[in-house]
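CORE FACILITY INTAKE
Project code: CF-77B
Contact: R.S. (postdoc)
Sample description: multi-component assembly, three entities in total
Requested service: structural model of the whole complex
Turnaround: standard
Below are the sequence entries exactly as provided by the requester. Do not edit them.
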Amino acid sequence: MTHITLTLCTNGQVITRIHLQKEYNELRTSVLALKFKDGIMMAADTLASYGSLARFKSIQRLQPVGSSTVIGASGDMSDFQYIQTLLDELTVEEFTAGDHHELGPAEIHEYLSRVMYARRSKMNPLWNSILVGGVKDGKSFLAYVDLLGTTYSASTLATGYGAYIALPLLRKAVEGREHELTEEEARKIMEESMKVLFYRDARSLNKFQIATVKESGVTISDPIILETAWGFAEGIRGYGAQTQ
Amino acid sequence: MAYIGLEVGGICQQGSGELWVRNSSAKRNSNCSEYVNRTAIGLRVKDGIVLAVEKIIHSKLLVPGANRRIQSVDRHIGMATSGFLADGRHLGNRARDEASNFRETFRMPPPLKDVVSRLSMYVQAYTLYSSVRPFGVSTIIGSVDKDGPQLYIIEPSGIAYGYHGAAVGKGRQLAKTEIEKLKLVEMSSREAVIEAARIIYLVHDDAKEKDFELEMSWIGDETNGLHLPVPKELHAEAEEKAKSALETFD
Amino acid sequence: MPDGSFASHPQERQFNPYSENGGTILAIAGADFSVIAGDTRQSEGYSIQTRYAPKVFRLTDRAVLAVNGFAADGNMFVKKVKQRLEWYRHAHAKDMPLKAIARLIQTMLYAQRFFPYYVYNILGGIEEDGSGAVYSFDPVGSYEREACRAAGAAQSLVQPFLDNQIYFKNQLAAPNQPHPVHLPLSDVLSIVIDSFTGATERHIEVGDGLEIYVVLAHGRSVQGLEGVPGVQELTTSGEGDRVFVIRRELKKD
């Protein structure tokens, strides 16, 4: 939003001031991801907040790219939408080449990290943290890239608040067991972590989606709404109906 | 001067490399040098588009499948060219640029008629100046877009019309006669692939001409709206049926 | 507000294009070998981003580069150095000599003088005369050849230790027994491992894993490497200078 204000100075001169007051629709909450036996799994809720306002409650933050990759984004919503169009243009270009090659998760991640690093170097970053995951040629891939162009790879990843709250839970459940975990176990870990995040992160929603990438392809679930219980809050001062 | 005249209907390249430009559109392609102007056809049917070209193998040393004459312009747009392969490639590149430019501007998959109108304007511009020669290709371009299956021919003059069935290149006369017999609006893409293969085999003059390869692609429900090569099995089946149909025809 | 402007100040999010990703690197030169090592933890603030992000890279059969600081800059810098070395190979049909790589790195760093790569580089390897060498750089390219250097988060812990153990600072030599100029490889490897276990104990940004690269001069025996568990050769020719890597676990807390 750009605000233009007219200021009257003491000498009567009118000064026009342009305030670049930026308000963002933010995909502030976390994206979680882990590796399991047959591939990777990623989860993100469906909220885009506007400051502390829960502005859009049904936004998809997990996006398939090609047939073996999924990306999950947190951060600025418009920047993410721009990234989506970039990737769409890229995949069309690759498709029309007609050479029977497709970009896999490693290539998508490399491309994104170049874009993100180039933009940070122009001091005009794309304000996002993005997880890229997928399976291609029997190899599973999971990596992170953010607004600074920082990249890394691990068997469990999380952005935002999830890096503090969910990542320790994910590491405990996954590290060293990447090749044993079944899809069902992985899903259970994800749901549990998302639940904990919802209880602790004020800017989150109990409505989320889970993406799974296996050799067979990408599936993104319909929104899942988790059962939560807030009965315990009754006894806590500062919650509920008590006035004192 | 290699270039003659401004009223252009088509161009030919003779063996000497001399460039000919004439304004007769009907006879245009039949006199062109032997191997560049092979037949290409397009069928617009109930649920999709089928493109097929007769690709002459001018050397036994060529890798099978090399020198493709069908290109993708966008996920949902395919084009087949007859004429100079290099000009066809150039138009393919231009078409891809136009399609991606449309995407950037309007954030939606380009409808075929927009790509066709842009591409035909480009082709037409090459008939206007003495410093350039027109494109030596007839293009069949097809898509399944928001309005369903679409099929166009773009001539070297820049003329573009929409069709139910399209044929360009050397065997187009016979091909058109055959296409006219088909009930295109009731036909499925799968059936159209069989028919397209049959027609290409039919128009190919075995006695006079060198070996050829059949190249086919389709767009429709079966490909999820994508422009893709016809799958191996179906291709083989269509080729098989085309050959046996040819025997009964003789 | 009386002047008609907005109560909240125009708020533009300040963007800091840099970050610090922890970790430590070091290199020690021997008479006819060079050892370059780094831990594999990458962190930001108190968070461990990953337990395995290499900071040490083989450039040629005789040069290894360790990069520490802002990881995004580091990775980009290594990528560009490698690219320049490839171009050199295409132009001259040989690998660039170590001292030339060192000068190249200075030029590349200084080219970014006013928007620097926030990276400390240590280059190790074998010179054309067959001697082991270490070059260390600051982020804008000033560099020197040394016998040993530590950099990164635990530089202040490791460098004094190396000064003592490699340069024998604050150690008095026994009569008629002067300090050696160069240590044998096995001693150097022990010092490297001790440096990192020590840094892991006392610095929160160091740990998880250790990668030690060893470059041996042409014709030198593998003495000092035999019996080292998990040592792996990266060069294939068997002639010329040779590069080995040794991987170790470090504490993960």
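Facility notes:
- The two ends of chain C are 52 Å apart (CA to CA).
- Chains C and B do not touch (no CB pair under 8 Å).
Invoice: internal transfer
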